[in-house]
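Allow me, if you will, to draw on your knowledge of protein folds for a short while. I have a record of one protein: its chain in single-letter code and its fold written as discrete structure tokens. I remain grateful for any guidance, and I place the record below:
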Amino acid sequence: MGTFVIAQRLSGVYKYEFVSRKGKTIFTSNDFELRFECEEEIEKLKSSLERCVFMRFKSSSGKFFFRLILDGHEIAVSRRYTTQLLLQKGIDEIVKYADKAEFLDFSSAEDIFGSSE
């Protein structure tokens, strides 16, 4: 099952990613000023997944990616895939698991693994 991961960029804004069962990022959201906005958008996405549109593109370097559109607004961009089949597998994973996915919050500045002495 996939997981939503909330993190903070170096610039101080927040983002979330949907990560596959194997630990690979499938898509990354737009930026948010506040962490709770990430949680709200994740819940909105989970509850309205059937209304999402996946717009597929091919980059100038030949890689495939999609933009996730909800209610006419782009909310996320996928990672780059080498083939259309892998792109479709990423989309399928979102459709199958996103509504059941939990989210992890790695946005705090605390060292979650502790120091190694």
